[in-house]
Amino acid sequence: MQDSHKNEKRVKELYEKYPYPSRQNATDKKVKNFVKWVSSIFGENFDYWKGKNVLELGCGTGELANGLALCGANVYAIDFSSSSIKKAKELSRKLGT
Q: DSSP assignment, residue 53?
């Protein structure tokens, strides 16, 4: 059990130091294109997300979460890394989501 706890602590420290993904140049066009790609995986179109409630577990720096919000989804996003959440919030302010 101690090894598991030690490994969990190491992973958290790593994510805090190197949040993933770390895309500094995300734009509304780029995150919307990401949503289009994800939508195609589900066989849906871009408008599918409008008005949907979405919970993203492990949102990283928020590209998908913010893209979904730009498409009209009600998004709730969480991540293990507080530095990733900080970047996701910065992106949200930048994109106005």
A: E
Write out the chain's pLDDT in tens, 97 residues: 567 777 777 777 766 665 555 566 788 888 888 898 888 888 888 899 999 999 999 998 899 999 999 999 999 999 988 888 998 999 999 999 9
* 34 and 41 Cβ atoms separated by less than 8 Å: no
CA neighbor of 73 nearest in space, from 93, 48, 95, 90 = 48
Question: CA neighbours within 13 Å on the CB side: how many for 93?
Answer: 5
- Token output for 23: 């895309």
Q: Which amino acid is at 40?
A: S
Across the chain, which distance is largest between two alpha carbons, in Å?
Answer: 47
Query: What is the DSSP-derived secondary structure letter of residue 27?
Result: -
> What's the chain's Rg over C-alpha atoms?
15
Chain-centroid distance, C-alpha 93: 14
H or E element, residue 2: helix 2-17
